[in-house]
Amino acid sequence: MKYFITGGAGFLGSSMADRLLQDKKNLVTVIDNFSSGKMAHIKAHLNDKRFKLIEGDILNLKLLKKAIRRHDFVFHFSANPDIAKGLIHTDLDLKLGISATYNVIEAMRTEGVKDMAYSSGSGIYGDAGLIKTNEDFGPLLPISMYGASKLGAESIIGAFCHMFDMRAWIFRFANIVGARQTHGICFDFIKKLKNNPDKLKIAGDGKQSKSYIYVSDAIQAMLFAIEKYKNKATYLKKETSGNVFIFNVGSGDHISVNKIARLAVQEAGLKDVKFAYSGGKRGWRGDVPVVRLDLTKILRLGWKAKYNSLEAIKLSLRELQKEA
Amino acid sequence: MKYFITGGAGFLGSSMADRLLQDKKNLVTVIDNFSSGKMAHIKAHLNDKRFKLIEGDILNLKLLKKAIRRHDFVFHFSANPDIAKGLIHTDLDLKLGISATYNVIEAMRTEGVKDMAYSSGSGIYGDAGLIKTNEDFGPLLPISMYGASKLGAESIIGAFCHMFDMRAWIFRFANIVGARQTHGICFDFIKKLKNNPDKLKIAGDGKQSKSYIYVSDAIQAMLFAIEKYKNKATYLKKETSGNVFIFNVGSGDHISVNKIARLAVQEAGLKDVKFAYSGGKRGWRGDVPVVRLDLTKILRLGWKAKYNSLEAIKLSLRELQKEA
Lengths: 324, 324
Description:
The structure is a homodimer. Chain A is α/β, with parallel strands linked by helices. Chain A has 2 domains: 2-177 and 211-249, NAD(P)-binding Rossmann-like Domain (Rossmann fold); 185-210 and 252-293 and 302-323, UDP-galactose 4-epimerase, domain 1 (Alpha-Beta Complex). The first copy, chain A, is built from 10 helices and 13 strands. The longest helix of chain A is centred in the N-terminal third of the chain and has 20 residues, at 92-111. In chain A, 38% of the residues lie in helices and 18% in strands. In chain A, the strands form 4 sheets. Chain A has a 7-stranded parallel sheet with strand order 3-2-1-4-5-6-11, sandwiched between helices. Chain A has a two-stranded parallel ribbon with strand order 7-10. Chains A and B meet through α4 and α5 of A and α4 and α5 of B.
């Protein structure tokens, strides 16, 4: 199989490249503009003949069309990784989330690439509180530009699949953690504690509780769901509606920000760190304080996360502490 | 009140301008790039001191910011009016639907305009078949770029309302019909019959059945819902989630394409017109053949359409026949 990965030098994209290249039959092309991706993440493959790197921006549709040609399957990971930044630069997620996704699926259409997977997120459910949202949940009311861009991108992918006989696997992930993260709570806490071992600033009241999934579990879930549906799923006929397969993916449990802060302090080998809360139940405007995903659909398919939220966070803190 | 209307020379926008200017206290600014809007629609107001026309494109954010300044309320109607065109020009709805809506709400944010209404559509529900979709319905899986752009735009509006203390009234309309239409089934049939009185080409199998609402009812529903919520609705506090009010708006019943075809023939004063079907249950890829909106929310508020689907279609055909 010939795979094409957007954001392929990033956290998730490079992890997927690693995994795919374990299979000798696979070829992998990675595109990245290195705005947050890192050469170090893909260095191991640079001399592999089965690996190709394109340094370029997927907002350049002409370049993207040429690059995507003659691939079998696209993993679209590229996005704005800094959710809170969307509060200041309100067009970031519009460009890097919605317009970029349009470019990917439009390039696939004109170049005849039929199958893709997209990393969406729990943010599309908005602030649903303690409700365990399943894939059919409504209303969908994202409260950040990040969430809005994920829903907008999903909609565009779905419309293309219907109109142009394409197939898409959409994964609404819990917070993915692990080595190579360049953003997110673990990365943030480790960095802050390194700069100031006496005091840790915590956004919100620390009581936010969300679900975390370890990166290898997230990668495995994608490949598992794609494999399961690959032959079952036929391309669209004009008379049917939509070959889009949507899955919530998480570890099933949750953990509080305060707990993660205590684990980060422990991992950093510190003691008596003062926690300074910014206050309010949200970390920032657009932050969803409580996330509960209903995982029934993917669990029934036979997939289960290897690590729970606590284990995923612990592993992630350890690796990021090493990288710091 | 000082109102700002995007697409203000179009079918809906100009009808809203007419209605608002009936109240002597109102001032109305209209922006339109006249891609489908018409000067004839707003001609009556050009000498009214309470009316201001800006010929310009809302994709020009700088121009839009300047134009939107010092208004109290924004009606955002501007969009691509030709749904099927999105199959050929796949970026039309992305630009005219999603990017344009981002520009409107971003201009409101930077210029301090807090309240807006948006004309969304039943297309966001995708192909839900005979299910009467209410405003909380899920999953939302649009099957056209038009539908995807409406959902993307709603999401962006919702995110802004949450992040920046704004309020939005979102109306998911059934098919709106009436004088001044430049697209849509009535316009299409009248035009076709004028060009060829012997044969009428019908997209699909003619059995599509949807709900239609007369334009004055649609305008009235918007003003009614805005008025009802205006004082009740407080601006967002950081700790709450979303001041976005979503309403389905329609006439409650439905009518088939075949029935509309027969009425169009009758209205054109013709007989023995042959119907030529393109076949298939959809008019085109992305056409939703069956639309059923649950109107409970707005009915409970006390609003009801004056005209049912049949009456709305009849009135519309009569007026478009006159305009033809």
